[in-house]
Structures are given as structure tokens and as C-alpha cells.
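Subgroup meeting minutes
Present: P.N., E.W., G.H.
Scribe: E.W.

1. P.N. recapped why we're keeping a running log of single-chain structure predictions: easier to compare across weeks, and new members can see raw inputs and outputs side by side.
2. G.H. added today's entry (55 aa).
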Amino acid sequence: MTTPDPIRRFVEATNEGDTEAFLNTFADDAFLSDWGRSFQGREQIARGTSPTISA
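Output recorded in log:
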């Protein structure tokens, strides 16, 4: 089984702590539900998740 490219890029960016690459895996109007927290749009995702993915 091959991991689809969007999922692979998301995982790689997360593991590498690459905030820019991580955010680029989302559409401008993306919705992210992360362990009970919800973020709408790339800006909210950046504010709400960057401490958890920063190296």
C-alpha cells in the first residue's frame, strides 16, 4: 500500500517541524479538528498548531 502524496507531505512536514510545509498541506479555507480543538482556515491552523509542530 502506498501512502497518498498529500498525507505523506503532511506527515513529513509534521515530523520535520517544518511549519511552512505543514501549512501548505491545507487549503486556504481548510477545517482542522485536532483533539477537541477546531480551526477554520490556514491562519487559525497556524495560530492554533504552530507550537505543537515547531522544532
